[in-house]
Design a protein that fits this description.
The chain is 60% helix and 18% strand. By secondary structure, the chain is an alpha+beta fold. The protein has two domains: 18-63; 65-162, Tetrahydropterin Synthase, Chain A.
Length: 163
Amino acid sequence: MAEEKDELEVETPGEPKKKGSNKKFLIIIIVATIVLGAGGFAGYKLLASKGTTDEKKEVKEEANTSIIALAPFVLNLSDHGRYLKVTIQFEITDEKLQEKVDARTPQLRDTIITLVSSKSLNSISSPEGKFQLKDELLFRANQIMGMDKDVFKNLYFTEFVMQ
């Protein structure tokens, strides 16, 4: 048995030492872990700081916006005997424009009545039709205001009943 142990411990010239290669492998793993960890931490900090400034800007922008509610509309659709009851609220980009919008409310109501009453039940009953109607109303409402920048940021249907 003693002879067998001696034979097992004898190194062959083609085999590298395992202890040295294990140390190199361990050092490579440690260095790679440190580099990846530092890179991940730096990326996290960079992205986290951008998110905070974007959130602050978004909150700041929302602080200046305001919602204007129009009285409900009951309209005839282009289909004979079909009606639509709709309530619309506009989100304005700056609350300082509230007085200008209030002064143009009759023009806004007229535009809404004219556009919506020209639509058929089929064209506005689908979700795509409602989005298209919103886009058209928003575009025309901003045209009515006649300013260089858009006054209305968005519009919301708070009631939409078809018969």
